[in-house]
Design a protein that fits this description.
Largest sheet: 7 strands, mixed
Shape: globular
Strand content: 25-35%
Order of helices and strands: HEHEEEEHEEEEEEEEEEEEEEEEEEEEHE
Number of strands: 26
Number of helices: 4
Strand order of the largest sheet: 3-2-5-6-7-1-4
């Protein structure tokens, strides 16, 4: 009799559990989810395809990436996805001939449209959805190829001294690096500060910055620079062949070998295998002339040209080691004098003082390429600085700060021996990493 009662009890429990799962589910379980894609421009949305748009889900928990494609209505319907936090992005590349046929606008390069939502939470509720609006971001002849922001071990390596950024000629013609600008993009480094005006995406609301004119899109039409540097030259002084690059080093020396600092003391790394030789860099950032007390490690290599410094932050071109920064390159257009572009203070709730720092406002349409980096740990990531027109998501060095790792753009194809690097304006797709940074290397 007890055995029979136990069987009846077990069967009843199973039925109740099944009924609960199918109805009002309260536990964690896969849910239905829908992504609806459209174009930010309604006019273009009437002309451009909504089918075969690639939609990517990247889990913040484990980094797992899943990709889907939209149907003709621009929708991806998932029957089962685990609740959690995801970076969701969408991208479509339209070939030049197709774009011209569809829109009547003549272009000579493929047009890329991107959209993204960072750290989107999917709950246990069924039938949730997200709407993403595609924004175009054209690909340019120059691309940021490699960023070595992490630096090497602080006790056995070179710490931050061996950082560099590499810029690549991704075109089929000779380009001149003269007057190419390199900038770090300013942005909020946390989600908690309460003394600033923020947008809905937690980034600075620059429209509230003191002196900002009305009638402009201060947040989406411009970026604001932490440091602004320019490659010198007469106009055709620094040619870069197709498939070649230039390296801008913080300090253009061999960091594997001992050197004498400006204070006369010898600087030596304990483990040379952790760092790199930058004595062959094409340019270096030398900040000592601007500082009352420069770093002893900031020495000038007379055989490497110095980059022009329009604005700077700190005591050298020290990239943020955890990776909480955006980087852009751009060239002047027409008669714009970059040095005379307006500068604005942080959009603080308390009015800034007359001595508050101000930062260059750079129009988005000047920018050739942008790359956002973020910390390797999802919990440490900060509000996104670059919009989808510049970079739909971001990249990172997996082992984080002082790991000797760099992020490097992937090779998409090789044509007649020339490497064409991937450029979809989505660094999550375009970039990989090197376990040890290596100027002029490829991935």
């Amino acid at each position: 009799m007890r055995k029979l009662l136990f069987i009846l009890f077990l069967a009843t429990a199973v039925l109740i559990a099944c009924k609960k799962y199918q109805g009002n589910v309260t536990g964690i379980h896969p849910v239905k989810y829908q992504v609806i894609i459209s174009y930010a421009s309604k006019d273009l949305g009437k002309l451009l395809p909504k089918a075969k748009i690639e939609v990517t889900f990247k889990s913040a928990k484990n980094g797992l990436v899943r990709k889907y494609t939209t149907k003709s209505d621009g929708v991806v319907s998932l029957d089962s996805i685990s609740p959690g936090v995801y970076d969701i992005s969408a991208s479509i590349k339209i070939q030049p001939a197709d774009y011209t046929t569809l829109t009547g606008e003549k272009v000579d390069k493929e047009v890329v449209f991107n959209a993204s939502e960072k750290s989107k939470t999917i709950t246990v509720e069924d039938n949730q959805q997200i709407e993403l609006k595609l924004i175009s971001g054209s690909t340019g002849p120059w691309v940021i190829k490699q960023i070595y922001y992490a630096g090497s071990n602080t006790t056995t390596g070179a710490s931050f001294r061996d950082q560099f950024i590499e810029i690549y000629n991704n075109s089929d013609s000779v380009l001149f690096a003269d007057s190419l600008y390199v900038a770090e993009v300013l942005g909020v480094q946390n989600f908690t500060s309460t003394n600033i005006y923020r947008q809905n995406n937690s980034q600075y609301d620059w429209s509230k910055s003191q002196g900002m004119p009305t009638g402009i899109d201060a947040n989406n039409g411009y970026i604001y620079t932490r440091s602004l540097l320019m490659i010198p030259g007469s106009g055709k002084q620094y040619p870069v062949k197709p498939g070649e690059s230039i390296v801008l080093a913080q300090t253009a020396i061999n960091h594997k070998a001992p050197f004498t600092g400006s204070d006369g003391k010898t600087v030596t790394v304990r483990d040379p295998s952790l760092t790199i030789d930058l004595s062959g860099a094409d340019f270096e950032a030398y900040y000592a002339p601007f500082l009352p007390k420069p770093l002893a490690s900031d020495i000038d290599n007379p055989s490497v040209p110095n980059i022009d410094v329009l604005s700077y932050s700190g005591t050298d071109l020290i990239f943020d080691n955890p990776g909480r920064m955006g980087y852009v390159i751009f060239k002047n257009k027409g008669t714009i004098d970059i040095k005379k572009l307006p500068q604005y203070p942080y959009p603080t709730i308390a009015p800034p003082t007359s001595s508050s720092d101000k930062y260059y406002q750079i129009p988005i349409d000047l920018i050739i390429d942008g790359v956002e980096v973020q910390p390797s740990s999802a919990a440490s990531r900060v509000p996104k600085k670059l919009g989808a027109t510049l970079d739909a998501l971001y990249t990172y060095a997996p082992n984080g700060a002082y790991s000797s790792q760099s992020v490097i753009r992937k090779t998409e194809s090789i044509v007649n021996g020339r490497r064409i690097l991937k450029d979809t304006n989505n660094s999550a797709e375009d970039f990989d990493f090197l376990p040890l940074a290596a100027p002029k290397a490829f991935k």
